[in-house]
Structure formats: structure tokens, C-alpha cells
Specification:
The structure is a homodimer of 147-residue chains. With 147 residues, chain A is of the alpha+beta class. Chain A is built from six helices and eight strands, in the order ββαββααββαββαα. Chain A is globular and about 45 Å long. The two termini of chain A are 24 Å apart. At the A-B interface, strand 7 and helix 6 of A face helix 2 and helix 3 of B. The structure holds a DNA duplex (30 and 30 nucleotides).
DNA sequence: TGCAAAGTGGGGAAAAGTGGGGAATAATCC
DNA sequence: GGATTATTCCCCACTTTTCCCCACTTTGCA
């Protein structure tokens, strides 16, 4: 039931570990058995899907037409970054080098709950992202949510 | 089935806690189990939705296509501010740091009942907001309500 | 005017976040 | 192929924050 939400600015230690906020951990379903699949975000950040959610995505990817060049490319570029990680006794996960590199994450990171996934951003990169977005939250929200 | 109404000027203690007026608490449905989801208001204030109301919104967000850039941005920028809080034995909730920051709330706050949600304002910010609004209560009512 | 409920403040136990040591495992280099 | 080096993972320790509980003051009502 619980979807991920909230934000946190946490440290990434020298070993590349980062804690997952307790509130997000408690939103994890038992089926996920404390496991995530992290992969490259569409934006310059890391996506973190609970195991059970990720499996659904894999089913979707598997159903794509593998004789379609673009489908092959999509699957390739998503899966090549994917890595399965499990929470340690302290509620942390270890980020993979390629993904830290892709998201330009160093010693601090922004953890954002986004529905069925968690996103991990470099604080500066996130700021840049926000500035690049058209400032039409309200209009967008209204068009999407307006009854 | 209470809708929230009324206003109150309450204190925010050093721990970021604020009491919810008894009248508003009694307007909470049992389904909300004493729980709210607070999030960023369109104006510089905090929105407080009872759990049951919030879940309806979440269903809407969940139905958005996450392969659409604008939809991702909307979900991200709304959910990152969201935080679920439960009333303590004294009828208080703890405000999140990011939201206190956003709404510039320090040691006093205005609590305003607004239909299906409660709004929490910094008194000065609310004053400023009022002054910035065109002073045509009557005309506004006519244009919004008239039909 | 007394009692109950509402609002306010703070102490202390428990949990969350952070850092690092060391054993097991894997990778690399003679 | 064996030894050395590097990684990974598990565990322990410390600090900070959160949350639960108790206590006091004020307000409202009978």
C-alpha cells in the first residue's frame, strides 16, 4: 500500500553506502524482502525499485518485440545499468560505481520518494534539473488532476 | 462528515510540533485514524490532508504515465514534499523541516480550515498573501461561484 | 467557582543515521 | 597456480534525532 514519498539529504560514505530513510523502508512490502533493483533514471539520477515492483517491469520489457531495433536498444540501455541490492543491518544500500558516476553522486545525496520508486540525486544536479523545468506546476497539476 | 473550518493562532515548539484545534480533530473521519499527509501548498503554506482524502489523490497520481516526462516531474515535485504524520496523545503533529522552511514557519502559525484540508501558514506570510490579493471579495465570489 | 478539556513545554528511552574495523571473497599479478 | 592485493559484506560503536510519556497552564463550560 504505502507509496514512497518525502525527501532527505543523506551522506554517502567512502564505501558508496547510503541509508534509506526509515519511512521509506517501512513502506517496503514484505514481498520485496528488503531488496531493490537500482537502475539509471531517465533524468540524471538513480531509480530504486522494490524487488516486487521491478519484477513487474521486467515482465513488461520481456513482452516487447525483440525484432524491433528500438525495443532492443531500450531494454539494453535499461538493463545494463540494473543492479540488485539488499539493505544491510543498518538500513543502507551500496551504490554501484557506474550509477554513481552517471548521477554524479559524491558524498551527499538527495533521496526522493516518487510513488513506486525512490530516486537518488546529487543535490546540485537536482537543483539544475529544477531550474531547467518549465515553472508550470500549478497549471500542470490542474490539467492532470482537475476534476 | 466534517469539513474543516475556522482559524487558530497556535504555537510551534522547538521540536516543530503544533497542536491541531480540537474542532478540526473532531471533524476527522475514523478512516483517517488520526493521520494526515502534509504537503506543500500552492501558496507558501502547508496543506494537511486527512489520510483518507490523501489516498484518493494518490490514486490519481498513480494512474499517470511514468514514461511521460511531465508526469514524472509532477509526481516528483509533489510527492517529495509529502509526509505522513499522526496525532500524538496531545493532539499535535510534527512539521517536517523542509515544509517549515518552505512556509517560513518559525514559532507561531495560523491554522486555517479549508474544506477537505487544513492549511498552516506563517502569520506574516499570510498577511503578505492577503495584501497581494485584489481586494474584491465580492467580485471574486461572483466569478468563481456564479453559474 | 470548580471541573474537564485544550494547549504548551520538556525529559528520557528508543530508533535512526553515520563511520569504521576486520573477516570472507574475488580479482590481479607474478 | 599460488600469493598478494583489492572488494565486498557483516558487525560493532557512536551521535543525533525522533517519539512517547508526564506535567503544568489556560480556557471553556456547567
Amino acid at each position: 500500500m504505502g507509496s514512497f514519498k518525502g525527501q532527505a539529504d543523506y551522506s554517502v560514505d567512502k564505501k558508496g553506502r547510503i541509508a534509506i530513510p526509515a519511512k521509506m523502508r517501512s513502506a517496503l512490502r514484505p514481498e520485496a524482502v528488503g531488496t531493490f533493483t537500482m537502475t539509471r533514471g531517465f533524468e540524471p539520477c538513480i531509480y530504486l525499485y522494490p524487488l516486487d515492483e521491478w519484477l513487474k517491469k521486467e515482465v513488461q520489457y520481456a513482452s516487447l518485440n525483440q525484432y524491433d531495433r528500438r525495443a532492443r536498444h531500450l531494454v539494453r540501455t535499461i538493463l545494463m545499468w540494473a543492479d540488485e541490492v539488499t539493505l544491510d543491518a543498518q538500513g543502507r544500500i551500496g551504490l554501484s560505481k557506474p550509477l554513481m558516476d552517471y548521477a554524479t553522486i559524491t558524498e551527499r545525496a538527495l533521496i526522493i520518494g516518487a510513488m513506486d520508486r525512490i530516486e537518488i540525486w546529487d543535490p546540485d544536479a537536482f537543483q539544475t534539473y529544477l531550474e531547467d523545468q518549465p515553472d508550470d506546476h500549478e497549471a500542470l497539476a490542474e490539467s492532470v488532476m482537475g476534476s
